[in-house]
Design goal:
Layout: H1 5-21, H2 27-33, H3 40-52, E1 56-57, E2 66-67, H4 69-77, H5 94-105, E3 108-113, E4 118-122, H6 124-127, H7 136-152, E5 162-166, E6 178-185, E7 188-195, H8 200-214
Antiparallel strand pairs: 1-2, 3-4, 3-7, 5-6, 6-7
Helix pairs in contact: 1-3, 1-4, 2-3, 5-8
Length: about 220
């Protein structure tokens, strides 16, 4: 299935707005937020089509749309290869940079050093600020996800410098509400864990910056 350029544009805007605002995105909001040069009815029809094709979903009747795994995947695949960021200092050891990365990305950082069989985690305070973790059940689910990642990362073999798994795609766990970005740098692996509604564009830039400075 091929989306038109207009449909791609509306989908990218809808995913970006949901990541930014944590609110279902409506046609009226897109019309107010962007000068799209098309009617509200056209935006509604395109949102309906994108929902029928599995990129978006409607939490309840008359609500706006939120991205599905498929919608997030489209958004990530359409991002430029590298983003410029300046949140991480160029100097510092692996642990200092990991701490800064956790703060900048609002994600949980997992570092695995296979030569030492060592796993180090950083960023609980940052990631749990996300509204997705308002209930104990959600926190327990994320804790289970983390445990699965810790066990699976020891046998993980990266096929490319940066890999991103969204929801059901992740190879580590049956928990489906989270995403993981995992990079192979120097003598180990570094992963960013968080809700599916993570700042992919920013986090890709952070990991590329980390890799450039530490390669």
């Amino acid at each position: 299935m091929t989306l038109s350029e207009r449909q791609k544009d509306i989908l990218q805007k809808a995913v970006f707005e949901y990541i930014d605002r944590v609110q279902p995105v409506s046609s009226s909001w897109l019309e107010e937020r962007y000068d799209m040069q098309i009617s509200p009815a056209t935006i509604r029809n395109e949102l309906l089509y994108l929902t029928e094709e599995g990129y978006l979903e409607q939490p309840y009747t008359s609500a706006g749309r939120v991205p599905t795994d498929q919608g997030y995947r489209f958004f990530v695949d359409e991002l430029p290869g590298q983003q410029d960021v300046d949140e991480i200092p160029a100097e510092g050891d692996l642990y200092e940079i990991g701490k800064k990365l956790g703060e900048a990305s609002s994600s949980l950082i997992v570092i695995y050093l296979p030569q030492k069989s060592f796993i180090w985690k950083e960023g609980w305070e940052q990631v749990l600020r996300a509204p997705e973790f308002e209930t104990r059940e959600q926190i327990e689910s994320f804790t289970n996800f983390l445990g699965d990642v810790e066990r699976g990362i020891r046998d993980f073999r990266a096929k490319k410098l940066l890999e991103i798994y969204i929801g059901k795609e992740n190879p580590f766990s049956k928990e489906e509400d989270f995403s993981i970005m995992i990079s192979a740098y120097q003598k180990g692996l570094m992963a960013l864990l968080g809700p599916k509604r993570m700042a992919y564009q920013k986090n890709i830039g952070l990991l590329h910056y980390y890799g450039r400075e530490r390669a």
